[in-house]
Amino acid sequence: MHTAPDASSTTPDLSTTLEKTDSVAETVVRAVAAVEDDPIEALPPLTTAVDPDALAALFGSETVGHVSFTYYGHTVVVSSSDDIAVY
Fold first, then answer.
1. Total H helices, total E strands in the chain
2. Domain residue ranges in the chain
């Protein structure tokens, strides 16, 4: 695991777009697992970092913006344009 010192000034380890058929939480966990090359089951619940329901509610609307949080040693940035970046 690693933590990006400043996600705004670095290139993400992985960048993906949320598919309309997937939840934000599922996409975040899959993205971090891919960066770590770990099975999804090896990661802690996303609730250790952020409330998945609040995240879904925030980005399931016409909200414009982004939210960042640390999960499994990575900075995760979720934007209202359905982009997810893992640093």
1. 2, 4
2. 7-86
As a residue count, the chain comes to 87
| Residue of 22, 31, 38 whose CA lies nearest to 75 | 31
What is the pTM for the complete model shown? 0.84
Q: What is the DSSP string of 37-72?
A: T--GGGSPPGGGTS-HHHHHHHHSSS---EEEEEET
Task: State the chain's maximal CA–CA distance in angstroms.
Answer: 33
Cα separation of 65 and 58, whole Å? 9
Residues in Cβ contact with 5 at an 8 Å cutoff, skipping those fewer than 6 apart: none
- The helix (H) or strand (E) run that includes residue 66 is strand 66-71
Give the pLDDT of residue 51. Answer: 95
Q: What's the whole-number mean pLDDT along residues 69-78?
A: 96
- Residue found by looking up tokens 């010192």 in the block: 5
